[in-house]
Design goal:
2 copies of one chain form a homodimer. Helix content of chain A is about 50%, strand content about 10%. Chain A is an alpha/beta fold. Chain A has one domain (about 10-350): TIM Barrel. In chain A, the strands form 2 sheets. In chain A, strands 1-4-5-6-7-8-9 form a 7-stranded parallel sheet. In chain A, helix 11 (about 215-230) links the parallel strand 5 (about 200-205) and strand 6 (about 240-245). In chain A, helix 4 runs parallel beside helix 7 and helix 9 crosses helix 10. The longest helix of chain A is centred in the middle third of the chain and has 25 residues, at about 175-200. Chain A is globular and about 60 Å long. The first copy, chain A, starts with 7 loop residues before the first helix and ends with a helix. In chain A, about 55% of the residues are buried.
């Protein structure tokens, strides 16, 4: 029997030999699955991630149906701002809305650096339950939003296409913005450390809003704090994946941030990214999620192109370049998993 | 007296010597101006762009207040889909909504390649009126959406953060998608040619949704048609500016598309872009529009960084990296114009 340390996913994270390329999909525990929607009909979104039994069931659903090589915790990045003291509501069709936002020194002072068991114990309990249920060869990925991405929501108060209010705050009051980023960084570091202590085999940091910053601002206001989180993590070999959507300009700098794996979005050419990172980190990605909306022929062609660009080198984890779309047919997702397994094995054996 | 051909803007487009760097701002004729909002209180958005007198007044407003080096026609990229037969409504707070969308061969056949004077005569009339009113040394920029960006709206039927329906159509039915792109390309080519014939001194092609495509899809489904538009244009030396938001991966390919000027968004490092294009086209950009929300000190620091990266070479047109934000203070925009003029003159004289 394989142990989790010998799993394809953890070996690929560490750039060790694998006979085939592991695959999982961002948002794989989500709305495209009828078994997820069945739960969603009975419970609101917050109840789903706050109830360890439900989070466990939802986390395991795609592992059962798709046979992906890793599970990812079902949760939301906004649990951290919540635990820091900002109540959030999820409004159907509108996304998350915060009742109050953060913009002054006083409001920053008022934020908690949360006690993990007290305010995020339900996440840690879900991790323990998932690990008890999960096939011992399938690793569990924990996650958090990156400090910059959480800052965006906490200052803006809701989703936005450009987070102009958050950027304004950054440029108008850089000192205050940095003190808020520091506080979020402390919370994220404690949160990911607690996830690892609870049993997460790897963690992913999602910087969903990296792409709204110019390259020099990105390095100053986002990358710097990602590096701090990774430096501060209490871990024992568990890999860290960093996925910064839209940070195409800073791949070379990201190689230095301490991550074991860089996730790349679908607007980055895989071969170009591979040349840039020069085998110093593993790469995760990067099929356009909309490709799964088309038929098997297109899925096959586009997937093979990425597998061929990755070649036989260790250190590739197949993934989508962003979350799986809610309109995806589950059989297309399953087709992708099988295709990646079969074709990567051929390429690696050749 | 300076003629339009001798203007800073047109000289910079052609990479001819200029004593200072010209500047204009995307969406400079817009909501951040109180004089614009005063008109908007009396008329709906469609009446504003369909009425040549109003479009003229709005186009001239930022030229008067900011003393920018070029005027850009006040209009909307969706006038082309409208002229092709797709009625569009602008719903406050929701953006454009099409009553019907395009997804079948029959619907593509039903689209008009519009007669310009008949269906877009109001735009051409506005151009003639603006040219008659405009100081003869200030050039007028006409514009159109790029075929791919118009395709996005025509298939999706509304704005979207990822245009997943448009991408699905592309991947599921590439042949049909290409026939739609061809038809849009013919309309855009005729439209920009008519704008030039009516008096536009330059034209800009906006590919606002370049960034939702992977690099290889971008070249196949967007760049190819931009090149076709430029090849097909009837023009007599009027420069073409191509602004593809999010096409960071294809700058080298864009250099070959026939554009005189490439607009770059604020997520591209100016110095890196300059190295990539190697003086073969002029560059336009690329201050983060949110910088204008901060104070003069920050505006100054960030602007100087771009001017220094551009250096003394001809072929830089200062602009924002995206449209000016509605919350921008007009005096900040004016400060930027004066700053670019003064500081670029010093740098160019040094």
């Amino acid at each position: 029997m394989t142990t989790v340390e010998e799993s394809l996913f953890l070996r690929a994270c560490k750039r060790l030999f694998v006979e085939r390329t592991p695959i999982w999909m961002m948002r794989q525990a989500g709305r495209y699955l009828p078994e997820y929607r069945a739960i969603r009909e009975k419970y609101d979104f917050q109840t789903m991630y706050r109830t360890p039994e439900l989070a466990t069931e939802i986390t395991l659903q795609p592992v059962r149906r798709l046979e992906v090589d890793a599970a990812i915790l079902f949760s939301d990045i906004l649990v951290v701002p919540e635990a820091m003291g900002l109540a959030v509501e999820f409004v159907e069709g509108k996304g998350p809305i915060f009742r109050k936002t953060v913009q002054t020194a006083e409001q920053i002072n008022d934020l908690n650096v949360p006690d993990m068991e007290e305010s995020l114990g339900y996440v840690l309990e879900a991790i323990r339950m998932i690990k008890a249920e999960l096939n011992s060869a399938i690793p569990l990925i924990g996650f958090s939003g990156a400090p910059w991405t959480l800052f965006c929501y906490m200052v803006e108060g809701r989703g936005s296409k450009d987070f102009a209010t958050a950027r304004r705050f950054l440029f108008e009051q850089p000192g205050l913005a940095e003190s808020l980023l520091e506080k979020i960084t402390a919370a994220v570091t404690a949160y990911l450390s607690a996830q690892i202590a609870a049993g997460a085999d790897a963690v992913q940091i999602f910087d969903s809003w990296a792409g709204v910053l110019a390259p020099h601002h990105y390095r100053r206001y986002s990358l710097k704090y990602i590096r701090k989180v990774i430096e501060g993590l209490r871990r024992d070999g568990q890999p860290v994946i960093v996925f910064c959507r839209g940070a195409h300009h800073s791949l070379a700098a990201l190689v230095e941030c301490g991550a074991d794996v860089l996730g790349i979005d679908w607007t980055v050419d895989f071969a170009a990214a591979k040349r840039q990172v020069q085998g110093r980190v593993a790469l995760q990605g990067n099929l356009d999620p909309a490709i799964l909306l088309a038929g098997p022929e297109v899925i096959r062609e586009e997937t093979l192109a990425i597998l061929r660009a990755a070649g036989r080198d260790p250190g590739h984890i197949f993934n989508l370049g962003h979350g799986i779309l809610p309109t995806t047919r589950p059989d297309h997702a399953r087709y992708l998993v099988d295709l990646v397994h079969e074709e990567s094995q051929k390429i690696r054996a050749s």
